[in-house]
């Protein structure tokens, strides 16, 4: 089990029967009761990561800090309730996410609304609910939001999202801070400065902070330092002292055995040190530092469970094993060529005897979960566990081929909570007679 520790939930173990368990619950028994594909979240893993990030903030940063969960990694009402009780805030990017956060018990003071193209309905809801801040993404949005605020005669707290022109070593689709990004106000052509000046001149805005997000699956802390330096470069040019700063999230997690684990302390320390240096040099007070973990908080806590179906040999001689899930519940391999590993639930540490291609059931050639993985012999009905499944799988899932989204469980010792019921196609929006 030690070999897979970095990938599996912290409570994962091998029970007396030799089968995988999480928080003392048999994965096979859970699969038999709730069906497959099945997604499982281990509560302790998530809460321990929140505690660890709090400790890092206290250890590394001299000012005040806050933790805000990037809900696009995964969100459901039950999941949001657990997070609200933990004391973290939440970043939302849609009307649906706002409504879930509100129903889950989040105070509006713990909510930030992000997005590069917020609808009028979403902005109106945010104004009515009174979210703590709206993160403005463009000059046009800034002008439009001022009109809404003036119409309501309500002064708004806002952040400005800045595109700092910082490149990171990750998949191109996961880079969000470069000069060609669709996100944020570019620095290089003066838009960022104009936005700061516009917001400060408006009687309807209380500009309290600057935000940036440079990408995802980052393992080098240096780009975060550069991002902080760029934010303060623009703040100095605009003569604006930010009360709050967020460099987003994006710290990487391992998905397979060959991936290294880089301590989140490197991330937090890099951001904190850069803020200390900039503020010391300028004689400015330290801002509230807002950390925005998403994937880092949830990926390891999640486990996807599939059932083996039919097998065959490809023309090239590869042994192909099909499971009853795939790109409808996990589009990441098709979209990003994301890598994963797999375990046989009933025989997790049996020596592998064959290389297989683990494929999904959907009508796409790109529906390949793992192009090549070593496994023991498997038979129809065996269960396959895929670790590091807690982020950007369910949240990006679909009903492709009219597939029903899977059930989702939250596990604690002596407790199994259903976060999402398995969808019933006859109750869905596309079942209309």
Please give the share of residues in helix: 25-40%
> Which architecture name of the largest domain does CATH use?
Alpha-Beta Barrel
Q: CATH class of the largest domain, please?
A: Alpha Beta
Q: Give the oligomeric state.
A: single chain
Describe this structure in words.
The protein is an alpha/beta fold. The chain folds into two domains: 155 residues, Lyase, Ornithine Decarboxylase, Chain A, domain 1, CATH 2.40.37; 255 residues, TIM Barrel, CATH 3.20.20.10. The protein is 29% helix and 24% strand. It contains eleven helices and 21 strands. Strands 4, 14, 15, 16, 17, 18, 19, 20 and 21 form a nine-stranded mixed beta sheet that branches. Strand 2 and strand 3 form a beta hairpin. The longest helix is centred in the middle third of the chain and has 19 residues. The radius of gyration is 23 Å and the shape is globular. The termini are far apart.
In short:
By secondary structure, the chain is of the alpha/beta class.
Mind sketching the topology for me?
Layout: E1 12-14, E2 20-22, E3 25-26, H1 27-34, E4 38-42, H2 43-60, E5 65-70, H3 77-86, E6 89-92, H4 95-104, E7 111-113, H5 120-129, E8 133-136, H6 139-152, E9 156-163, E10 185-186, H7 191-201, E11 205-211, H8 222-237, E12 244-246, H9 264-282, E13 288-291, H10 295-298, E14 302-313, E15 319-323, H11 332-336, E16 343-344, E17 354-359, E18 368-375, E19 383-386, E20 407-412, E21 415-420
Parallel strand pairs: 4-20, 5-6, 5-13, 6-7, 7-8, 8-9, 9-10, 9-11, 11-12, 12-13, 15-17
Antiparallel strand pairs: 1-2, 2-3, 4-14, 14-15, 14-19, 16-19, 17-18, 20-21
Helix pairs in contact: 2-9, 3-4, 8-9
């Amino acid at each position: 089990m030690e070999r897979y520790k970095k990938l599996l939930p912290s409570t994962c173990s091998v029970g007396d029967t030799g089968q995988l368990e999480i928080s003392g619950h048999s994965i096979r028994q859970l699969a038999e009761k709730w069906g497959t594909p099945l997604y499982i979240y281990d509560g302790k893993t998530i809460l321990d990561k929140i505690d660890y990030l709090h400790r890092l903030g206290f250890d590394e940063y001299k000012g005040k800090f806050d933790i805000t969960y990037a809900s696009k990694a995964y969100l459901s009402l039950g999941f949001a309730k657990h997070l609200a009780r933990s004391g973290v805030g939440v970043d939302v990017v849609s009307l649906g996410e706002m409504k879930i956060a509100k129903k889950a018990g989040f105070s509006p003071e713990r909510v930030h609304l992000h997005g590069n193209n917020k609808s009028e309905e979403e902005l109106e809801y945010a104004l009515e609910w009174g979210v703590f801040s709206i993160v403005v993404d463009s000059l046009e949005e800034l002008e439009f939001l001022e009109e809404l605020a003036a119409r309501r005669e309500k002064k708004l707290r806002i952040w400005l999202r800045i595109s700092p022109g910082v490149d990171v070593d990750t998949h191109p689709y996961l880079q969000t801070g470069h000069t060609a990004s669709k996100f944020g106000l570019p620095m290089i052509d003066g838009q960022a400065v104009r936005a700061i000046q516009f917001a400060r001149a408006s009687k309807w805005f209380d500009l309290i902070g600057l935000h940036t997000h440079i990408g995802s699956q980052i393992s080098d802390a240096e780009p975060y330092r550069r991002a902080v330096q760029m934010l303060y470069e623009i703040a100095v040019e605009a003569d604006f002292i930010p009360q709050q700063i967020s460099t987003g999230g994006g710290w990487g997690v391992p998905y397979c055995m060959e991936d290294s684990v880089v301590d989140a302390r490197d991330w937090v320390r890099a951001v904190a040190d850069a803020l200390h240096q900039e503020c010391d040099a300028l004689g400015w007070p330290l801002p509230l530092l807002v950390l925005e973990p998403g994937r880092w908080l949830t990926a390891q806590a999640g486990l996807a469970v599939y059932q083996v179906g039919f097998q065959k040999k490809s023309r090239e001689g590869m042994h192909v094993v099909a499971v009853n899930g795939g790109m409808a519940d996990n589009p990441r391999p098709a979209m990003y060529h994301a890598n994963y590993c797999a375990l046989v639930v009933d025989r997790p540490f049996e020596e592998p005897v064959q290389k297989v291609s683990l494929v999904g059931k959907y009508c796409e050639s790109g529906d390949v979960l793992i192009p090549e993985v070593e496994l023991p012999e498997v038979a129809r009905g065996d269960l396959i566990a895929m670790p590091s499944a807690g982020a950007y799988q369910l949240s990006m899932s679909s009903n492709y081929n009219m597939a029903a989204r899977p059930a989702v469980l939250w596990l604690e010792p002596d407790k199994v909570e259903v976060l999402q019921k398995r969808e019933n196609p006859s109750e869905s929006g596309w079942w209309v007679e």
